[in-house]
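JOB MANIFEST
job_type = single_chain_structure
chain_count = 1
residues = 61
[input]
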Amino acid sequence: MKWVYVNQPSVYIRKYQLTEGDNTKLVIKYNLDQQSVRISSEENHRLFLSTKQDYGTTGLF
């Protein structure tokens, strides 16, 4: 398995695919503008948002 970077038309989105041979196992899209990560597999989709908390630390939920 290996991670492959996929070019996107938007400068704000980074897309990576985890591939095994010709099959795509997992897709990760990172949105720089919204500070969010979307993880997708065949039937599952998850969205994680990053927020600023006290003292400048960042949290994901």
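[summary]
Residues 15 and 29 are 4 Å apart (CA to CA).
The beta strands are 2-6, 13-20, 23-31, 36-40, 45-52, 58-60.
exit_status = 0
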